[in-house]
Amino acid sequence: MSSNLSSTRRVFMMHTALACATTLLAANAQAQSLVAETDPQASTLGYKADASKVDKTKQPKFAAGQICGNCALYQGAAGSAAGACPLFAGKQVAAKAWCSAWAKKG
């Protein structure tokens, strides 16, 4: 019986450690700030926090319907307001934003 109790305690401790790590990762992801249009990387890529405000004369690659939320690089959950993008390490992009690196999913 003591080996069964020891095994249960071990499983409980592993689950507790996993839950703590998951909570810390989620808190870190939520703490990331949004990319500013004035950020040097964002400026270089023509990033606009609202794709409807993209100047089509300055950004000829832009087409209606292209937003970060449907870009192959976007790492946010479907339906989320913002998510990570590998082009902007440590920051999030708005799902309704756009930049010149937009790539079709799939």
Please characterize this protein's 3D structure:
- The protein is mostly helical and about 110 residues long.
- It has helices spanning about 1-30, 40-45, and strands spanning about 80-85, 90-95.
- A two-stranded antiparallel ribbon has the order 1-2.
- The longest helix has 30 residues, at about 1-30.
- The mean pLDDT is about 85.
Concise account of the structure shown:
The protein has 106 residues and is mostly helical. The chain is built from 2 helices and 2 strands.
Q: What keywords describe this structure?
A:
single chain; 106 residues; mainly alpha; two-stranded antiparallel sheet; 2 helices; 2 strands; 33% helix; 6% strand
Q: Determine the strand fraction and express it as a percent band.
A: 5-15%
Element order, helices and strands? Answer: HHEE
Assign the structural class, choosing from mainly alpha, mainly beta, alpha/beta, alpha+beta, or little secondary structure: mainly alpha
**How many separate helices?**
2
Q: Report Rg.
A: 20 Å
Oligomer: single chain
